[in-house]
Design brief:
- The complex is a heterodimer of chains A (about 160) and B (about 210).
- Helix content of chain A is about 20%, strand content about 35%.
- Chain A is of the alpha+beta class.
- Chain A has a five-stranded mixed beta sheet, with no helix packed on it. Chain A has a five-stranded mixed beta sheet with strand order 2-5-4-6-7, covered by helices on one side.
- In chain A, strand 6, helix 2 (about 110-120) and strand 7 form a beta-alpha-beta unit.
- Chain A starts with a strand and ends with a strand.
- Chain B has about 210 residues and is an alpha+beta fold.
- Chain B has one domain (about 10-205): Chemotaxis protein chec.
- In chain B, a hairpin with a 3-residue loop joins strand 7 and strand 8.
- The longest helix of chain B is centred in the N-terminal third of the chain and has 26 residues, at about 15-40.
- The chains are: A alpha+beta (about 160), B alpha+beta (about 210).
- At the A-B interface, strand 3 of A face helix 2, strand 3, strand 6 and helix 5 of B.
Chain lengths: ~160, ~210
């Protein structure tokens, strides 16, 4: 069995084949997997919030889409990945509870997905596939060798995007 | 010295924790009485545990991020704004539903009726907690209609974590264990917004 590197909530990490990288229980959070197709270096960031500038507590870059994605890209570049060869796959951004509250955090899942796409676009990294939205949690595992992004959800068949 | 309005969750004093614990205690006490009436059995309660938890520990606390849990979530309004969640492992939820309905849930999933029973349990428990908070602080608190979701612990708990995430890297968890012949444990997560934190502190004389 290949080693599986675990990424927590508001956390990021990088890996090289044959290692896999995983994050468990994405709810409204988004898991962004990026790899360099040639060097096969890959990484995963589990972001919680869209924008670091909207909040007070912004010390941890991996918490936000707008800072976590550039940080992951920097870490990949340190491992020898090249930005122009990077591609991304994204999953998560669900709405776990149905109610429509008046809170500004309504639709945080959707806002995370929008911010994720904007951050990737700003870095010119194409999104090859996504499994986002809906109302259930997801566990994802990324294989930097093949680029396969496995999405597991409770009571649903395993999906590979 | 920081003004109490600038207190972050990390800077809360031990005293404030004790107060929250006491609120949890009274709330759980009320909840136990209500549960006992609802279930028609004697229900005992352990002393609640209050702690600040890092996001990283969030999932592992409830038996792993992939552990199936039932989360009952509602928004509070009035003098304070925020949300409150009651989370329990799916098995605990089943045990409670079984006691309330007098029969075990059929199959692995909950029926509409059972979900509704579970919501009501969550409503009673969070209501009891909010009641004690309201009584102690003299603040008016209106809870919304509860919503329920059964999924992986990581995904459920990320909801309050995200709300805390705007101001902190930690969140406040109150563990309450109920028992009659078997243990049923649940966790409250209270997420007041920043302004409300200050209001609660102020109302309690801090």
């Amino acid at each position: 069995m290949a080693d599986v590197i675990k990424v927590g909530i508001a956390d990021l990490n990088v890996c090289k084949p044959p290692e896999l990288i995983t994050t468990i229980g994405l709810g409204s959070c988004v898991g962004i997997a990026i790899r360099d197709k040639q060097s096969k270096v890959g990484g995963l960031v589990h972001v919680m919030l869209p924008n670091s500038r909207e909040v007070k507590s912004s010390a941890n870059p991996a918490k936000f889409a707008d800072t976590g994605i550039p940080e992951l890209v920097r870490r990949l570049e340190k491992m020898g990945a090249v930005r122009s060869r990077m591609v991304a796959k994204i999953a998560g951004g669900a709405t776990m509870f149905a109610f429509q509250s008046k809170s500004e955090l309504t639709g945080i899942g959707d806002r995370n997905v929008i911010a994720t796409k904007a951050a990737l676009k700003a870095l010119n990294i194409p999104i090859l596939a996504e499994d986002t939205g809906a109302n259930y949690g997801r566990t994802v595992t990324f294989n930097p060798e093949t680029g396969d992004y496995e999405v597991k959800a409770v009571g649903k068949p395993l999906k590979v995007i | 010295m920081a003004d109490s309005n600038d207190l972050t969750i990390e800077q809360m004093s031990d005293q404030y924790f004790d107060v929250l614990k006491e609120i949890g205690n009274i709330g759980a006490g009320n909840a136990t009485t209500a549960l006992s009436t609802m279930l028609g059995t004697r229900v005992d309660m352990m002393v609640p545990k209050v702690r600040l938890m890092e996001f990283k520990e969030v999932g592992t606390t409830l038996g792993g991020e992939e552990q199936l849990v039932a989360g009952i979530y509602l928004v509070v309004d009035g003098d304070i704004h925020g949300s409150i969640m009651f989370v329990q492992q799916k098995e605990s939820a089943r045990a409670m539903v079984q006691k309330l309905m007098g029969m075990p849930p059929e199959g692995d999933d909950f029926s509409e009726m059972e979900l509704s029973a579970l919501k009501e349990i969550g409503n009673v428990i969070t209501g009891a907690y909010l009641n004690s908070l309201s009584t102690l602080t003299n603040l008016t608190i209106y809870p919304s209609v509860p919503e329920i979701c059964i999924d992986m612990a990581g995904a459920i708990l990320s909801v309050p974590a995200i709300e805390f995430g705007a101001v902190s890297d930690k969140m406040l968890l109150i563990q309450t264990d109920f028992a009659d012949d078997e243990a049923m444990s649940g966790y409250f997560i209270l997420v007041p917004d920043e302004e409300s934190d200050a209001r609660i502190l102020h109302a309690l004389g801090f």
